[in-house]
Fold these 2 entries.
Entry 1:
Amino acid sequence: MIETRTFNGTTLRKDFPILAQPTSRGKRLVYLDSAATSQKPQAVIDTLDRYYREYNANIHRGVYEIAARATDAYEHARATVATFLGVHSRDVVFTRNATEAINLVAYSWGNRNIGSGDVVLISELEHHSNLVPWLRLCERKGATLRYIPVDANGRLLLDDLDERLRGVKLVAVTHVSNTLGTINPVEEIIRRAHAVGAFVLIDGAQAVPHLAVNIAELDADFYAFSGHKMLGPTGIGALIATHAILEEMDPFLYGGDMIGTVGYHSVSFNDVPYKFEAGTASIADAIGLGTAIDYLTALGMDAVAAHERDLSAYALTRLAELEPRGLAIYGPRDPATMCGAISFNFADVHAHDLASILDTQGICIRAGHHCTMPLMEKMGWSATARASFYVYNDHDDIDALIDGLKTAATIFKV
Amino acid sequence: MDDFYRDYILEHYRNPHNFGKLDAPTATAEQTNPLCGDRIRMDLLVGDDGLVADVRFSGKGCAISQASASMLTDEIRGKTLEEVARLGKDVILENVGIGISPTRMKCAMLGLRVLKSAAIGSIASWPDEDA
């Protein structure tokens, strides 16, 4: 049983060693790029260290003690993911990240189920990872890629959804926009898609770290996320899918551990989920993801979401102070329907110049197209600056951002 | 890096020299920096004497990419395409005057890369990666 902790960003900072390290200019590190990747708590770092020091061994094979311990820890991590997201362990396929999970579906399920004349429906908000695999699948198969449009504030326009769903075989949408922080009404999209018999994939890379997500209740057919954005190590993520669909799907990668029996001219495959996990897995990273989930569970995902709503509300208020000087805030501007990220531009200072000036003050933000080039093109932004928040951020971090932006304004004479 | 944003850099950023397009360029190229989406186009007009008679650049991006492209265009007239193709990163580093962080080097080099691409008629390598 995990003990619950009450928290605020300031009290959690001590759990993250990197946040105690001053930058090369002697500044406090103000990390506002968690939508790109999160920092790691000592507990996760310790888990990786302990695996390599104490029981590094390959899984599902060795009969010796440390191999059994590694296998137990890896499968325990799978169970931790399953409990966290309200699904069964056997429906959790470990992948490198959300991108690999989505590609797995695009190849294994898509190759078999999408054909000439079929329609795949995605949204204009998608990260390249939930756009390019479908673009290529549709090109390969002679299928059509259709888009749910987005309004000027980054909200999906769902009025014509039923019309757009006509003939659609698969809907693939992001749960939370990585660029604008918009929380999409995925429950409604899933319900309306299922009503016309379409399958639904949700890209949860920006949702699972920040919101309480129950995939079984959502009733998504496929759900993808990455561990490194939720306090876990890089190189581990998962695809969660309905068991019957996984059973019917072809494997993605072929090789060791995913097989049943192999002859020189024949092969049978392992059970779900193992048939999708070819080769040696990122064992330490999977176990580390389990520790990250334990850490988040102790905080409570509702408390995490509330903490981020508070940060978003405070950041929106403080950023608004700079609007008379030319600061433009993009996205919903409503803490209740956004999480984790705010995009903005400041007068004629390019986002990259803002990021460089903030960097000299120890402040890390993202600048650019955020892997959503079509969205940027549609909105007419060549680049935006993005500040994104997580459990270890507090009002001081946002104050530092505002001070840094004022410095940039002085340097650029705006 | 704060030191980088000197007045003459900001002046070139806000009022770039030779900005625009040529009606009938002899050579042209346009590229983006995939890192940040900065985009620059370079148009060259070469006279009968084989020398660059006119140059224009267009695009959008950060102060570093736009100012370094602007300053570069001031130095191109009177050169042959062969000379333009041989320009190295030093021309940019001398122009912008002060150390650019490694993360922003591609921004500074984009204009030169596009210019060299126009001169050779194919995609040039990144000047900062040339041996």
Note: The mean pLDDT of chain B is 90.
Entry 2:
Amino acid sequence: MSINWSKLTGRITGWVLPIFLMMIWEIASENGWLFSKILPSPREIVQAAIDLSISGELAKNIVASSERAGWGLLIGGSIGFFLGLVNGLSRTADRFLDTTVQMIRNVPHLALIPLVIIWFGIGEEGKVFLVTLGVFFPIYANTYHGIKTADPQLLEMGRVYGLNHWQLFSQIIFPGALPSILVGLRYSLGLMWLTLIVAETIATTSGIGQMAMNAREFMQTDVVVLAILIYALLGKLADMGVHFLEVRLLQWHSGFRQ
Amino acid sequence: MKAFTTHFKNSSMTTTADFTNTSSITLKLEQVSKQFGNLTVLENLNLVIEPGTFVAIVGKSGCGKSTLLRLISGLDQPDQGTVFYDGKIHRKLNGHARVMFQEARLLPWLNVVDNVQLGLGKTGKGKALEALNHVGLESRAKDWPSVLSGGQRQRVALARALVHEPRLLLLDEPMGALDALTRIEMQQLVERIWLETGFTAILVTHDISEAVMLADRVILLDGGKIDLDVKVDLPRPRQRDNPNLIKLQEDILRRVLTIPA
């Protein structure tokens, strides 16, 4: 028998508590201890998921939300990454731009919602804009930090070994900054969903947040809870994506080696 | 100290003559000075190093030996005076000199062979493996530097320097952080490779036994000036218990210690 019991139990352990809580929840709902308009039973939520899947509404809303999240991350992440690089590498750019970046960062981006609605209406652009603002800073700050903390000893070695500017960047500065950049990405993903949840509950015609707001109007708590669970699931998926990147890109780092 | 200088004045470099090749560098420093703020680290230093020789620079901490090495490499520039490579003024870092530092300074995100290949481009794989073979680490080519021991990392760093076929190898206490046994192995390896290859080697060290074991010539720096310049005219491979070697070592050590701090 070559079953690795310790590994197996290690994997299962994390799920014991959630499943136990779900069972209590289900039992409480079945016996009427929980009023289903306050908190629906797990069975009802699964039923809601099945109904919405069949009607195609669930898929449509998930796609709409993911698209906004994806565009926002792409645009905000690129700007943050690029500015982080430029300011990290060039002192002049840093002096010129950093004050502006810090001022923008200190405005809570969700406070811009009224203005965003005036500017963009309730279309896609406003939400993408908010997500862009939300994800921008963590990626900027961590890219900047990663570049700034490049090991001077390694840089000196690179110069002695005849590396040109591009090689110094691609072989020494960037790989050294990568762990930090991925931390920034992780933070950004958290802010990405947070921003989207708020943006979609305020003004929109599709998306998970809109689905939840609609459901609230009709007291469909099962759909509301379903929407929350989907956010949790999408957040977990995004985090797994970064973890996958870390394991692939940071194999050299003893902290990430499998 | 006069005994040394007269004794060595007439000696030819018997041990290195066979290996002196056209590719090693004649190094000349003329009236070189370096200040950091008000502190004069090197003062009007004159030094000629013949091609293919192995020179050790010793001295107390802060005597300017590492600064001297940095000026020779081109990592720093002298405030006054000039460094010549083969009679030509040397200002910038160039492909002729390679430096080994006290730390191996391997890139943690590249495996061993890619580290050795650094700066060579895609075509350098064969050469890199050959250099690794030279230092006895070809079996670790695919490993990450972080899983190697300190001595192995320095051997990789040595391979990385050798792969460029340097005409001048500058060693900035590369064995300083190794344990005693690993240090002896590393010294033997450096000596063997130097004998095979014939580059000009300059070793900065605070270990006087290491200096007399390896070098043709030991230079003692003090207060930014050359306090002592002796040739070590002992046959290779040298034995650690050779009485001449021990005597020389003791003499230099006494000289270092009598210098007022």
Note: Chain A has one domain: 60-249.
